[in-house]
């Protein structure tokens, strides 16, 4: 990658903090818990503020995505990200609420809050709108990725076969995700909207964001 390309990437709109309009839209959006109950995003943010901890919001791809599962498993191995006295973690997927419990168990049951956003209201509110199946540059993927693309694809297919009733409830396979961090005062301090299917942030980047603010 040339220095010009690196500078362009450094100022990518995909990493721009949410605008006031986006924050307003996010505060009006609702997600679903594992019982299908509506939960407002604003209430999740207010809860983290009342607990005086940052909020890490993770948007996943579809619930069968092996690469996103690896990312969440990596988060589950972080002593910082899993410390509820230091950060509140909310994971939102584009599938149906019925798949939340299974998804949580597949990523090692971390102490995170899992929600579904099948209508993509919160995704769209924060500008997480890109849809593709692009794998990106294999030299620039996160260190949390393990195994080849073929292995991850087989893992995704296997997950669907094991749970046929949920196979079609995982969400749009092209929908990408991202990560956002709000500090303990409720101010956004980090944003990353995935450009391709292996573009989740480095865990170390998120650890730094939640401990620096």
β-strand number: 7
Number of helices: 8
Distance between the termini: 31 Å
In the CATH hierarchy, the architecture is: 3-Layer(aba) Sandwich
The biggest sheet amounts to: 5 strands, mixed
What is the overall shape?
Answer: globular
Can you give a write-up of this model?
The chain has 213 residues and is of the alpha/beta class. A five-stranded mixed beta sheet has the order 5-4-3-6-7, with helices on both faces. The protein has a two-stranded antiparallel sheet with strand order 1-2. 34% of the residues lie in helices and 15% in strands. The chain has a single domain (43-133, 150-211), classed as 3-Layer(aba) Sandwich (Glutaredoxin), CATH 3.40.30. It is built from eight helices and seven strands, in the order H-H-E-E-H-E-H-E-H-E-H-H-E-E-H. InterPro entries: PXL2A/B/C, Thioredoxin-like_sf. This is Related to glucose 1-dehydrogenase. It holds the Pfam family AhpC-TSA_2.
Element layout with pairings:
Layout: H1 3-10, H2 20-28, E1 30-32, E2 38-40, H3 41-50, E3 55-59, H4 66-76, E4 88-93, H5 100-106, E5 113-116, H6 121-125, H7 149-162, E6 178-182, E7 188-193, H8 203-211
Parallel strand pairs: 3-4, 4-5
Antiparallel strand pairs: 1-2, 3-6, 6-7
Quick structural summary:
The chain has 213 residues and is α/β, with parallel strands linked by helices. Helix content is 34%, strand content 15%.
């Amino acid at each position: 990658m040339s220095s010009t390309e690196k500078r362009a990437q450094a100022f990518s709109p995909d990493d721009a903090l949410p605008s006031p309009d986006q924050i307003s839209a996010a505060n009006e959006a609702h997600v679903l818990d594992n019982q299908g109950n509506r939960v407002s995003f604003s209430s999740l943010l207010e809860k983290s503020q009342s607990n005086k901890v940052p909020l890490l919001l993770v948007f996943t791809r579809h619930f069968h995505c092996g690469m996103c599962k690896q990312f969440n498993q990596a988060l589950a191995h972080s002593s910082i990200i899993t410390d509820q006295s230091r950060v509140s973690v909310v994971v939102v997927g584009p599938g149906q609420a019925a798949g939340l419990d299974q998804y949580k168990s597949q990523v090692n049951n971390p102490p995170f809050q899992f929600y579904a956003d099948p209508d993509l209201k919160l995704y769209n509110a924060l500008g997480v709108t890109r849809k593709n199946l692009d794998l990106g540059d294999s030299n620039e993927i996160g260190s949390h990725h393990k195994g080849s693309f073929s292995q991850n694809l087989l893992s995704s297919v296997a997950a669907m076969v094991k749970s046929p009733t949920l196979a079609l409830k995982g969400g749009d396979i092209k929908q990408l995700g991202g990560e956002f961090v709000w500090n303990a005062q409720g101010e956004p301090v980090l944003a990353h909207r995935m450009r391709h299917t292996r573009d989740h942030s480095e865990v170390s980047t998120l650890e730094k964001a939640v401990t620096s603010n």
